[in-house]
Amino acid sequence: MRGALHDRIVARLIAERRSRRLTQAQLAVRLGRSTSCVFRYEAGARYIDIAEFIAIARALDVDPLELLRQAEADG
């Protein structure tokens, strides 16, 4: 079930990707996934589970726990 926290987590992931000046395609390569997969989760068309969240955060060189704390504080 998606909710406000999930939306804030996705927003944080997008902000981190952009701050690193990475395109969706570049992030997809780091993840070993398709560009459309990254597009879908950023657009809200795909739910991110915890394992995938950790992989994305690591691909962005972000501490997953800190990102969660930030997303929770944004609420």
TrEMBL record:
Gene3D superfamilies: lambda repressor-like DNA-binding domains. Residues 13-67 form the HTH cro/C1-type domain. Coiled coil: none annotated. CDD domains: HTH_XRE (cd00093). InterPro entries: Cro/C1-type_HTH, Lambda_DNA-bd_dom_sf. This is Helix-turn-helix transcriptional regulator. It comes from Bosea rubneri. The lineage of its organism: Bacteria, Pseudomonadati, Pseudomonadota, Alphaproteobacteria, Hyphomicrobiales.
